[in-house]
Design brief:
The complex is a heterodimer of chains A (252) and B (302). Chain A is α/β, with parallel strands linked by helices and 252 residues long. Chain A has helices at residues 44-50, 81-87, 102-112, 118-131, 135-138, 151-163, 181-194, 207-213, 231-236, 241-247; strands at residues 4-15, 18-29, 33-37, 61-69, 72-73, 88-91, 169-173, 199-203, 216-221, 224-230. Chain A has a six-stranded mixed β-sheet, sandwiched between helices. Chain A has a four-stranded antiparallel β-sheet with strand order 2-1-4-5, with helices on one face. In chain A, a hairpin with a 2-residue loop joins β4 and β5. The two termini of chain A are 36 Å apart. The model of chain A has no long low-confidence stretch (mean pLDDT 91). Chain B is mainly alpha-helical and 302 residues long. Chain B folds into two domains: 2-62; 69-299, Orthogonal Bundle (MetI-like fold). Chain B is built from 13 helices and two strands; from the N terminus they run ααββααααααααααα. Chain B has a two-stranded antiparallel ribbon. In chain B, α3 (83-114) runs parallel beside α6 (161-171) and α3 (83-114) packs across α7. Chain B starts with a helix and ends with a helix. The mean pLDDT of chain B is 90. The chains are: A alpha/beta (252), B mainly alpha (302). The A-B interface holds A 52, 54, 57, 59, 82-86, 89-90, 92, 94, 96, 98-100, 108-109, 112-113, 158, 161-162, 165 and B 116-117, 188, 190-191, 193-201, 204, 208-209, 212-213.
């Protein structure tokens, strides 16, 4: 039986006076891929970033409502944001490896959480890189700068970096939009492999991609969640006229 | 369709003469820019040649070792050793860096990463103001406040390495803060968010990601601050006492290389004057070395 990993209740997010999300309610299933689609500025990235409280890095953001992960509201007072972000990792649009070696990029996460033994770090680095399908391409040059990797490789390195701290949920904010088609295909294969063990939420502008990789799809428009359905149903038989207009390319 | 062709034709007719004029204007502007570039380069070359031509013969006669490492500065007796001044310049400079750099770095991190925008705006303009105060005013402040304070509360004559270091530390703050802050601000936002999103604290993110990434800029900030401290004259003359004796503590008075030139150039002649130019040559070489170091550290970024 499916189980709910993240339950979002009446989520409102404001940037200064602008309301970016209006009363969003959604249940995200454990170990499934949920795609967020919608035109630019519709609030899907804001929604994604509210799941590990990254929005609060932007001055003047106000969040109301609840995001309940494993039964705990992450917006409660006393939430350990460090532990939350370890559990809920994020991959950004622009592949951004840190300006250090490939090894150090992946070891960074475990290090900041107190793991310093070389044997343990070696083990984590190899496991994470293997999981991210990058190990075979970089195993002979772990000490060289990560900035010399291609965009697609950097994006998989970032995923390895996220995996290194044993997250349960992985958020992806248009992870393939800066990649070429081959790198994109590799990334999509990777998402398919990861979903058995991780709950994945992915923002994408590419509807074919949403259809290919996700189990559930949420359609956002102007800060409202318009429709949330199993992907197969949403793309074949949308309930809402606006969803249909969007996926058939009539606007956006 | 016809109107488009017609308008294109008229544009061409009209344009031919305009085009020629534009080309000539363009060439004139380019020549003007080239000329200004040449003038400033030429000025630097002339200054180098002038200082060296006046200073190097004396260094050659006394010997580089004798000039740099002898303690005795007695121009009237023909003894030209600037060791005490080299030590004096280095002492006040490193003294200034010892507290100016940590303070400047903390300020830069605060302004780039932590300060609310309004606070940052106010503090930035205050630091700009600090850069605009004439150095003689700093010196005067040192003379009437810091020197007596040291004499009464810490000891010694008050005119000292310590007084110079305190004043110079304040004077190099704008240089250090401005450059270091910009270097820190130039660190891509993705690095910071990527680190925080892994569960790093703000402090871990600053020390392990932001500062290492900004390191070339931070080194440049420190070296340029150092150049400013070595070259500063007026404020230092007023607070360091200017005696040509080897200092035995930070409370002892010293004379810096810059002070030496400014104090004696007014009445020096002959070999004495050449010795002052030689002092300037050493100073110039020192600053040239610092600038090369900055360029090298900037290149290391790529």
């Amino acid at each position: 039986m499916d189980s709910v990993k993240v339950r979002v209740k009446d989520l409102d997010v404001y940037y200064q006076k602008f309301q970016a999300l209006h009363k969003v309610n959604v249940d995200i299933e454990e170990n499934k891929v949920t795609a967020l689609i919608g035109p630019s500025g519709c609030g899907k990235s804001t929604f994604l970033r509210s799941l590990n409280r990254l929005n609060e890095l932007i001055e003047g953001t106000i969040t109301e409502g609840m995001v309940i992960i494993d039964g705990v509201n992450i917006y409660d007072y006393g939430t350990d944001v460090v532990q939350l972000r370890k559990k809920v990792g994020i991959v950004f649009q622009k592949p951004s490896a840190f300006p250090m070696s490939i090894y150090e990029n992946v070891a960074y996460g475990p290090r900041i959480h107190g793991i310093n033994k070389k044997i343990e770090l070696d083990e984590i680095v190899e496991r994470s890189l293997r999981q991210a399908n990058l190990w075979d391409e970089v195993k002979d040059r772990l000490k060289s700068s990560a900035l010399r990797l291609s965009g697609g490789q950097q994006q998989r390195l970032v995923i390895a970096r996220v995996l290194s701290v044993n997250p349960e949920i992985i958020l992806m904010d248009e992870p393939a939009s800066a990649l070429d088609p081959i790198s994109t295909a590799k990334l999509e294969d990777l998402i398919a492999e990861l979903k058995g063990n991780y709950t994945i939420v992915i923002v994408t502008h590419n509807m074919q991609q949403a259809a290919r990789v996700s189990d559930y799809t949420a359609f956002f428009l102007n800060g409202h969640l318009i429709e949330f359905q199993p992907t197969a149903r949403l793309f074949v038989n949308p309930r809402d006229k606006r969803t249909e207009d969007y996926i058939t390319g009539r606007f956006g | 369709m016809t109107t488009r062709v017609a308008s294109l034709g008229s544009y061409n007719q009209h344009g031919k003469r305009g085009f020629a004029i534009r080309l000539r204007k363009e060439a004139a502007v380019e020549r003007l820019l080239l000329l200004s570039a040449l003038v400033s380069t030429l000025a630097i070359i002339l200054i180098i040649l002038f200082i060296c031509s006046k200073g190097v013969p004396l260094i050659a006669r006394v010997g580089l070792g004798g000039f740099l490492f002898s303690n005795t500065w007695n121009p009237l007796a023909g003894q030209f050793g600037i060791a005490t001044m080299v030590v004096g310049s280095l002492a006040v400079t490193f003294g200034a860096l010892a507290w100016g750099v940590p303070l400047g770095m903390i300020l830069a991190i605060f302004l780039a990463e932590l300060a609310p925008p309004r606070v940052a705006a106010v503090m930035n303009s205050m630091i700009e103001l600090l850069a605009g105060i004439p150095s003689v005013v700093y010196g005067f402040f040192g003379l009437v406040v810091i020197v007596p304070f040291i004499r009464v509360h810490i000891g010694g004559p008050g005119f000292s390495i310590l007084a110079g270091a305190i004043i110079l530390g304040i004077m190099i703050l704008p240089t250090i803060v401005n450059i270091a802050r910009d270097a820190i601000k130039a660190v891509p936002r993705e690095y910071k968010e990527g680190s925080l999103a892994l569960g790093a604290t703000n402090w871990q993110t600053v020390t392990r990601i932001i500062l290492p990434t900004a390191r070339p800029g931070i080194i440049a900030a420190i070296v340029l601050g150092m150049g400013r401290a070595v070259g500063e004259t007026m404020a230092v003359v007023l607070v360091t006492g200017n005696v040509t004796r080897m200092p035995d503590s930070i409370l002892a008075p010293v004379r810096t290389m810059t002070s030496n030139v400014v104090l004696e150039m007014g009445y020096a002649s002959g070999e004495h004057q050449m010795a002052l130019f030689a002092t300037g040559t050493v100073l110039f070489m020192f600053i040239l070395g610092l600038n090369l170091a900055v360029t090298a550290s900037m290149k290391a970024r790529d």
